[in-house]
Amino acid sequence: DTAVSQTPKYLVTQMGNDKSIKCEQNLGHDTMYWYKQDSKKFLKIMFSYNNKELIINETVPNRFSPKSPDKAHLNLHINSLELGDSAVYFCASSHWTSEYNEQFFGPGTRLTVL
Amino acid sequence: DAKTTQPTSMDCAEGRAANLPCNHSTISGNEYVYWYRQIHSQGPQYIIHGLKNNETNEMASLIITEDRKSSTLILPHATLRDTAVYYCIVRVAGSGGSNYKLTFGKGTLLTVNP
Fold first, then answer.
1. Strand order across the A64-70 sheet
2. Nearest-CA neighbor of B60 among B35, B24, B23?
């Protein structure tokens, strides 16, 4: 199936731990994104990469570090997890040069920090 | 990006048309209107977009007023599976860093009733 996939789907961990979320897309896109949806359901962009280059970096703590080994992957590493990091994290991808930049989203990773 | 205003929630009977309004009175001439939806526990899904003219695809129709200050998303025959939060987003199209950022508001929770 052509899609944006994320692993894991659920992640429960203790405060202070370091964790990673992986994202892969097989749509042939060259731009990928991470969004965070908090408990109030607000969906906010965190990062965007185009051809492995960071192009959007919102005001996100530097404990969050995205890594793009190639155009098809954008992983999110989080250091020293805090309670406030609990949220659903969505990965998305799109074409860079598309007029309308339709973004395709993954199924989300629900992170719970205890 | 221009701010949008949508009703918090709407109800629709199954099989009837669902008309979801969106106000974007401060929209600029180079900003498109996009609609996404998020079904419970899933990632957002692109529906349709437009600039000036009305648009239709297999999912929905988009009606944009002549002054472009408001628009309506129409689901012609709503089904129970269309129950979701619908987001109206205005954004500059084209390449360039922040142009690719989708800014989600609170959206409209559409509940389709049997």
1. A4-7, A19-25, A73-78, A64-70
2. B35
Q: Which helix (H) or strand (E) holds B74?
A: strand B70-75
> Rounded CA gap, B1 and B18, in Å?
26
Q: CB distance from A102 to chain B under 8 Å?
A: yes
Q: Which residues contact A62 (CB under 8 A, 6 or more apart)?
A: none
pLDDT at B98 over 70: no
Q: How far is A24 from chain B (nearest CA, A)?
A: 14
Look up tokens 């349709």; give the residue.
Answer: B48
* Residue contact A103–B102, C-beta within 8 A: yes
What confidence score (pLDDT) does residue A7 get?
96
Q: What 3-state class would DSSP assign to B43?
A: coil
R_g (Cα) of chain B, nearest Å: 14
* Secondary structure class of B97 (helix, strand, coil): helix
DSSP reduced 3-state for B5: strand
What is the SS3 assignment for B75? strand
What is the band of B103 on the pLDDT scale with cuts at 50, 70, 90?
A: confident
- Label the pairing between strands A109-113 and A10-13: parallel
Portion of chain B with pLDDT greater than 90, in percent: 77
The strand order across the sheet containing B70-75 reads B18-23, B70-75, B61-64, B55-56
